[in-house]
Automatic annotation (TrEMBL):
The keyword Metal-binding does not apply. This is MFS transporter. The chain crosses the membrane at residues 20-42, 54-71, 83-101, 113-133, 145-164, 170-192, 204-223, 235-253, 274-297, 309-326, 338-357, 363-390, 411-438, 458-477. Keywords: Antibiotic resistance, Cell membrane, Membrane, Transmembrane, Transmembrane helix, Transport. It comes from Streptomyces poriferorum. PANTHER family: BLR6921 PROTEIN, MAJOR FACILITATOR SUPERFAMILY MULTIDRUG TRANSPORTER MFSC. It is found in: Cell membrane. The keyword Membrane applies. It is a multi-pass membrane protein. InterPro entries: EmrB-like (IPR004638), MFS (IPR011701), MFS_dom (IPR020846), Sugar_transporter_CS (IPR005829). It holds the Pfam family MFS_1. Residues 17-482 form the Major facilitator superfamily (MFS) profile domain.
Length: 510
């Protein structure tokens, strides 16, 4: 097929569509953190035990993380617009159920349903961008906006969660999703026009769906259980073993079946593989920090929920600036690895500042610059990562490639919360034990000192993880500078050809 035959005229409504896609993505990302601040109030109101409170978070994470690949494949099969709208409507209904919950069972069930519809919504949103924005410069701007929301939306959730919980009540952290979803669904229905011929109508790979869902659920549950029950717990170890067996079986099945859920060509490409791996590692570091800073500001410094939320503003500003002003402007001028690797390193420098936290640390001298550098670095790296993950992909694979981006973030978030929290708890316990033996006389002061020591110890690990993410981005990713006029996601001319056209590098077909 000729090059001219592969180029489509851009959709005149694409920028309007971006507004509604971005709104939906903001809702999903907000929901990942907005509930955290409201959780203590919901626990008291509904009589949720300490042992069960984790299920408010875990129910969502299991459903969302376990079904993302399935959601991406459904988007390719049904059509991204239809999947996007169904996901939004379902998410709104699940949110209404959560806000109206009368007992813990209703709340846990609503969170699981949010995860199910979020797994439809998230990959559909990203894959719509991938097939609608084909000009490299426009794509850079669109993914800059999307990347800023994906990176900074979690911190915005902390602000909004604090405001709603403090001024209204915890139920509004659920109800607030409803207007977001209604506006985004109505806008998408009337504005989005999915390019013709971009669906994958192959039969659904049922064994792949079952194995991937069970394997990812076991993996996410293993990390969440490790946080509460310890890494040596028999069920924790058994869950990790089961996850490894299920995911290995999934890979073997995908290599054999005619129409795989996850075509191995999607992840075996070194650029996309490098993006998935480095992005997952970076999210491990970032999600752990969200948790530590929230506790540090509220427990150690005594901030209110609203003040805590606003204390995250420098990170949001940094992410938006890094994504839209640095990443988007430089994406068409330099190779992606020269944005991602330095971006992760800059974020690591911000983390390094936060290892200096003490009980009486100044917000302006330590936390503000640390967050700003972290946000700038993450925003700069996230934007080309989001774009590169779907560049040159066959349109029929756009949904599942997008789902892999979300899967790496979701699994990374679960790992980050459990792994770094476990490290922090162990360090805090060791510190408290040793200093109690030395004759510390103020139990409350010792408790706070131990907590902060645990946080800084875990943040050192986060610094190391970001350095590894930078190394992976710098070595695995070899895509060159994208042409300013080429298109991606053409009419199905092949994955390898799409990547070669876009990045002007020699590629061997998978």
């Amino acid at each position: 097929m000729s090059k001219t035959a592969d180029i489509r005229l851009p959709d005149p409504s694409r920028w309007k569509a971006l507004a509604f896609i971005a709104l939906a993505q903001l809702m999903v990302v907000l929901d990942a953190t907005i509930v955290n601040i409201a959780l203590p109030h919901a626990q008291t109101d509904l009589g949720i035990t300490d042992a069960n409170k984790q299920w408010v978070i875990t129910a969502y994470a299991l459903a969302f993380g376990g079904l993302l690949l399935f959601g991406g494949r459904i988007a390719d099969l049904w059509g991204r617009k239809r999947t996007f709208v169904v996901g939004l409507i379902g998410f709104a209904l699940a949110s209404a159920l959560g806000g109206a919950a009368q007992n813990q069972g209703m709340l846990f069930g609503s969170r699981a349903l949010q995860g199910v519809f979020g797994a439809l919504l998230a990959p559909a949103a990203l894959s719509l961008l991938a097939v609608m924005f084909t000009d490299a410069k426009e794509r850079a701007k669109a993914f800059g906006i999307y990347g800023a929301i994906a990176g900074g939306g979690g911190a915005v959730g902390l602000i909004l969660g604090g405001f709603l919980t403090q001024t209204l009540n915890w139920r509004w952290t659920f109800f607030v999703n409803i207007p977001f979803a209604i506006v985004a669904a109505a806008g998408a229905y009337f504005v989005i026009r999915e390019p013709a011929g971009s669906r994958n109508r192959s039969s659904l790979d049922i064994p792949g769906v079952v194995l991937s869902a069970l394997g990812l659920v076991a993996l996410v549950y293993g990390f969440t259980r490790a946080e509460s029950s310890g890494w040596s717990d028999t069920l924790t170890i058994g869950t990790f073993v089961a996850s490894a067996v299920l995911l290995l079986a999934f890979v073997l099945v995908e290599s054999k079946v005619k129409s795989p859920l996850l075509p191995l060509r999607v992840v075996m490409d070194r650029n996309r593989g490098g993006v998935y791996l480095s992005l997952g590692l970076a999210v491990i570091a970032m999600f752990g920090l969200f948790l530590f800073l929230t506790y540090y500001l509220q427990v150690v410094k005594g901030y209110s929920p609203i003040k805590t939320g606003f204390a995250f503003m420098p990170m949001i500003v940094g992410m938006i600036t890094g994504s839209t002003q640095i990443g988007a402007r430089l994406m068409t001028r330099v190779p992606a690895r020269l944005l991602m690797a330095p971006g992760f390193l800059l974020a690591g420098v911000g983390m390094l500042l936060l290892t200096q936290l003490e009980i009486d640390s100044s917000y302006a001298a330590v936390i503000l610059p640390g967050q700003l550098l972290l946000g700038l670095g993450m925003g700069t790296a996230f934007m080309p990562a989001m774009s590169l993950a779907t560049h040159g992909i066959e349109p029929r694979d756009a949904g599942v490639a997008s789902a892999m981006v979300n899967t790496s973030q979701q699994v990374g978030g679960a790992i980050g919360t459990a792994l770094l929290n476990t490290i922090a708890a162990s360090a805090a316990t060791a510190y408290a034990t040793s200093h109690a033996a030395l004759g510390a006389t103020d139990p409350e002061q010792l408790k706070l000192q131990s907590m902060v020591h645990g946080f800084t110890g875990a943040i050192w690990w986060a610094v190391g993880i970001l350095v590894v993410a930078a190394a992976i981005a710098g070595t695995f990713i070899n895509a060159g500078r994208p042409s300013a006029t080429t298109t991606s996601g053409g009419t199905g001319s092949g994955d390898a050809e799409g990547v070669e056209d876009e990045f002007k590098i020699p590629v061997v077909a998978h």
